[in-house]
């Protein structure tokens, strides 16, 4: 049916274009457009403002025979809220007419259209506006003043439809409730201005509100119109950008069947989302709410858009929606409006058919007078209206002025138009510039396109302190109240309470203000409800997204060692810096444990004690030898080299102590050089002893004078030269690339090993190689002299000691390489101690045993007798 009506209207539009206002109008032309004005309430004036209001909510179906023209559109569902808007526009116009400072000597009239939320009726009303100059005026002459602009439409979808028609005639549209972001497209809608913020602000701000409250898993829905679909699209894009997820997204059908509504509510019931965000009108959301209550799905938190969150129809009829929050248009207390609304006279002049219908419906009576009808079907009541009934005795949406939000936007729209016309009027009155006066349009012969430049420049502060202006897209500033539905007193409807605000023109961090302590949630508590797909991951855990599911559905996985998360819901764990490590809870980085072989730990104490025992044992042997230095056994074993050997062994044991403790700039060079020098001295003494033994027996051969080269001075010189060579290597090492302390971070991830770097590996190898050469050479010589006769022969003891020495240091190499951290140092100390004890025991233990326990063998006679045998 609507398709046929729209087609008919388009044909009429084509005819209208052919009969443009410039042509002279005959009486026939004036009568041609009479059918466009059905259901219009008007008052004459010098300038006429058109207003569009959905005083009825839907049409009454007609049977079309296609044999005759369709009858006039009839509507049903009287909308008290929209009727209040229409009366408020009348009040604002009359207020402007009484104001001597605004449009002086100019009287504004109005034509108010009821379009019943129908596209066809909206187009019909627009045709009526643009054809105004072809209609009869109040005197019957065909010279009605043109309508320069339209205040409306409240519907985004209808605004888009009629704007395409009005664009042809450059008629500006100043909407007070059409908030679709799509209307900001100036290429498609160049003449639309709005005193309500664009949904681009609201949708984005609602997403930020959802994130602010910690809801990451939500259900989103919108009405099946431009407003719902566009706002939902912007909201979902912002939600995705903020890292939030939607359990479902759905469109509410415009005229749903019961099966569709049940299916829709089943989606909500089956969803795990506890929060529902809806961009829809009160007419669209109402059947969904009713079905949810019927199915007892009442444990959801609603978040509403401005189109329904301040609706008295919803808030007063469904107490189960207590706790609902949402964005609302800024409100104002308009003085005098309530009294004006209550003083409505249903039969006053000019006659308003909608006022009569409202009166009869409100007081359940009929006037029984033959007067023009409104767009609604006339209902007959048994009681007769007197016209003296009192509106102030009723409590309805019509006279409820506690939440004047859309009405306040209508106030801004009417006054914005008035200020634009006033600027145009002032342009005419400027003196001293005749050229400019010629450019100013005649306000009494005003064409729609002439108002547009003045509308773009509107900028004033109204009586409520708010700035009214249009940006480059014809939009108002994005300012909203955030409201919450509280349970009223016993028997009272829900109360709409302001709990915050949003202002897009402020700095980002100041735009959203929320008074959370004033919020009452759907369960009556003050605790913010939880709506998440997965619980928050605590510090120490990271989110691991589940395959095939939204980002908000995840598992909490502990951070790996060496990484942390110090806030909730981190997607990735953060690696600790090189010198830090994660604590057991994985929620902070702590200093890594510093590890080195210390005197204070048990293993270090054991090694230190062993080294001290070695020093004491060596000192004891020296004391024994010193006390028995004149005995044959001590003298026969070269006492001078023996004391020098005992001194070097003492240094070897003391050298082990330098490997304990924290490595430092002085400790690292000391331990390496001390090790090299003490062992070089020890092996030099052993080598001299072995050579003395060999030379001693060689000297017994007739004519052999070799022994004179191995007397004590030569022995001391040999020890000195062998030690000096090692000393030269150590000096070169310390002057070129000495050992230095380093922090080993690569061996263990959770601790730092303090160790000594060799500095020059080549020189370190030279030190070890030299010691190895001395040991091998000494071993070979001792092995060759092991079977020489006599008790003077120490060769076999030196052989055993060198055998132990070489075995220890050969075994040391793989143990050193495979030992981690501080145990590397322990292995080195163990090798030093083991080899030192091997030399001490193998060479001096047998002698000490004889000296102490078998003194009878420590005589010259006994030694000589053993030599003879």
Summary tags:
Rossmann fold, rod-shaped, membrane, receptor, 869 residues, glycoprotein
How many extended strands?
27
| Average pLDDT taken over every residue | 84
Number of helices: 25
SS class: alpha/beta
Strand content is 5-15%
As a whole number of angstroms, the C-alpha radius of gyration is 53 Å
Query: What is the CATH architecture descriptor of the largest domain?
Result: Up-down Bundle
Anisotropy-based shape = rod-shaped
Helix content: 40-55%
Q: State the distance separating the first and last CA atoms.
A: 144 Å
Low-confidence stretches: 1-12, 14-28
Main β sheet profile: 8 strands, mixed
Q: What's the level 1 CATH class of the largest domain?
A: Mainly Alpha
Report a brief summary of the structure.
With 869 residues, the chain is of the alpha/beta class. It is built from 25 helices and 27 strands.
Question: What does this entry look like structurally?
Answer:
The chain is 44% helix and 14% strand. It has 869 residues and is α/β, with parallel strands linked by helices. It has four domains: 40-58 and 76-133 and 144-196 and 337-415 and 459-469, Response regulator (Rossmann fold, 3-Layer(aba) Sandwich), CATH 3.40.50.2300; 199-305 and 311-335 and 478-518, Rossmann fold (3-Layer(aba) Sandwich), CATH 3.40.50; 541-591, no CATH class; 602-866, Up-down Bundle (Rhopdopsin 7-helix transmembrane proteins). It is rod-shaped, with a radius of gyration of 53 Å. The protein contains 25 helices and 27 strands.
């Amino acid at each position: 049916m609507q398709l046929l009506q729209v087609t008919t209207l388009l044909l009429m539009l084509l005819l209208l274009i052919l009969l443009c206002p410039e042509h002279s109008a005959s009486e026939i032309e004036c009568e041609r457009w009479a059918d466009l004005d059905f259901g219009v309430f008007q008052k004459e004036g010098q300038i006429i403002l058109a207003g569009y209001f959905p005083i009825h909510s839907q049409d009454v179906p007609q049977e079309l025979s296609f044999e005759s023209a369709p009858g006039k559109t009839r509507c049903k569902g009287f909308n008290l809220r929209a009727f209040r808007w229409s009366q408020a526009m009348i009040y604002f116009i009359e207020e402007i007419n009484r104001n001597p400072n605004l449009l002086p000597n100019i009287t504004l009239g109005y034509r108010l259209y009821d379009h019943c939320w129908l596209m066809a009726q909206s187009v019909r009303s627009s045709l009526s506006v643009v054809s105004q100059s072809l209609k009869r005026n109040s005197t019957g002459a065909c010279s009605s003043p043109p309508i320069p602009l339209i205040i409306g439409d409240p519907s985004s979808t209808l605004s888009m439809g009629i704007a395409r028609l009005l664009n042809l005639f450059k008629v500006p549209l100043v909407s007070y409730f059409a908030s679709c972001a799509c209307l900001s497209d100036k290429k498609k809608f160049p003449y639309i201005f709005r005193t309500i913020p664009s949904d681009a602000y609201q949708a984005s701000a609602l997403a930020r509100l959802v994130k602010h409250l910690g809801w990451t898993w939500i259900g989103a829905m919108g009405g099946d119109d431009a407003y719902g679909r566009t706002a939902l699209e912007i909201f979902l894009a912002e939600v995705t950008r903020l890292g939030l997820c939607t359990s479902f997204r759905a469109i509410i059908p415009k005229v749903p069947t019961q099966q569709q509504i049940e299916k829709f509510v089943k989606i909500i019931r089956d969803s795990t989302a506890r929060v529902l965000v809806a961009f829809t009108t009160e007419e669209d959301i109402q059947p969904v709410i009713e079905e949810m209550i019927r199915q007892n799905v009442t444990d959801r938190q609603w978040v509403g858009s401005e189109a329904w969150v301040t609706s008295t129809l919803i808030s007063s009829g469904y107490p189960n929606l207590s706790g609902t929050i949402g964005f609302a248009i800024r409100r104002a207390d308009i003085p005098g409006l309530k009294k004006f609304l209550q003083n409505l006279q249903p039969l006053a002049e000019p006659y308003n058919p909608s006022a009569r219908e409202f009166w009869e419906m409100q007081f359940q009576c009929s006037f029984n007078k033959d007067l023009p009808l409104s767009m609604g079907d006339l209902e007959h009541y048994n009681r007769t209206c007197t016209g003296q009934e009192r509106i102030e005795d009723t409590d309805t949406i019509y006279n409820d002025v506690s939440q004047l939000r859309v009405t306040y936007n209508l106030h801004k729209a009417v006054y914005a138009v008035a200020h634009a016309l006033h600027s145009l009027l002032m342009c005419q009155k400027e003196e001293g510039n005749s050229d400019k006066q010629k450019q100013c349009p005649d306000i009494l012969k005003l064409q729609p396109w002439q108002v547009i430049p003045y509308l773009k420049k509107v900028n004033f502060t109204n009586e409520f302190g708010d700035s009214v202006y249009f940006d480059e897209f014809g939009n108002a500033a994005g300012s909203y109240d955030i409201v919450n539905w509280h349970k009223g007193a016993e028997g009272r409807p829900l109360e709409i309470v302001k709990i915050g605000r949003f202002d897009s023109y402020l700095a980002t961090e100041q735009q959203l203000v929320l008074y959370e302590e004033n919020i009452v949630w759907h369960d009556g508590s003050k605790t913010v409800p939880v709506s998440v797909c997965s619980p928050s991951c605590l510090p120490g855990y990271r989110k691991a997204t589940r395959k095939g599911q939204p980002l908000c559905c995840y598992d909490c996985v502990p951070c790996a060692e060496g990484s942390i998360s110090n806030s909730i819901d981190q997607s990735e764990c953060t690696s600790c810096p090189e010198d830090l490590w994660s604590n057991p809870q994985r929620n902070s980085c702590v200093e890594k444990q510093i590890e080195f072989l210390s005197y204070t730990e048990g293993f270090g104490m054991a090694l230190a004690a062993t080294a001290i025992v070695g020093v004491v044992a060596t000192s004891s042997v020296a004391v024994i030898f010193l006390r028995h230095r004149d005995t044959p056994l001590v003298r026969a074993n070269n006492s001078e080299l023996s004391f020098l050997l005992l001194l070097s062994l003492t240094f070897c044991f003391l050298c082990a102590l330098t490997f304990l403790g924290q490595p430092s700039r002085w400790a690292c060079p000391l331990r390496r050089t001390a090790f090299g020098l003490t062992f070089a001295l020890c092996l030099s003494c052993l080598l001299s002893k072995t050579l003395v033994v060999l030379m001693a027996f060689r000297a017994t051969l007739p004519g052999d004078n070799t022994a004179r080269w191995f007397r004590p001075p030569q022995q001391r010189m040999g020890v000195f030269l062998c030690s000096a060579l090692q000393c030269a290597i150590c000096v070169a090492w310390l002057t070129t690339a000495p050992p230095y302390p380093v922090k080993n971070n690569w061996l263990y991830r959770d601790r730092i090993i303090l160790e000594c770097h060799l500095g020059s590996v080549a020189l370190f190898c030279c030190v070890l190689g030299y010691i190895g050469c001395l040991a091998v050479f000494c071993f070979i010589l001792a092995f060759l002299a092991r079977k020489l006769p006599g008790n003077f022969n120490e060769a076999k003891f030196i052989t055993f000691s060198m055998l132990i020495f070489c075995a220890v240091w050969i075994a040391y190499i793989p143990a050193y390489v495979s030992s981690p951290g501080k145990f590397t140092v322990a292995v080195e100390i163990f090798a030093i101690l083991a080899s030192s004890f091997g030399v001490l025991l193998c060479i001096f233990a047998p002698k000490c045993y004889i000296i102490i326990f078998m003194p009878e063998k420590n005589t010259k006679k006994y030694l000589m007798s053993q030599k003879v045998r």
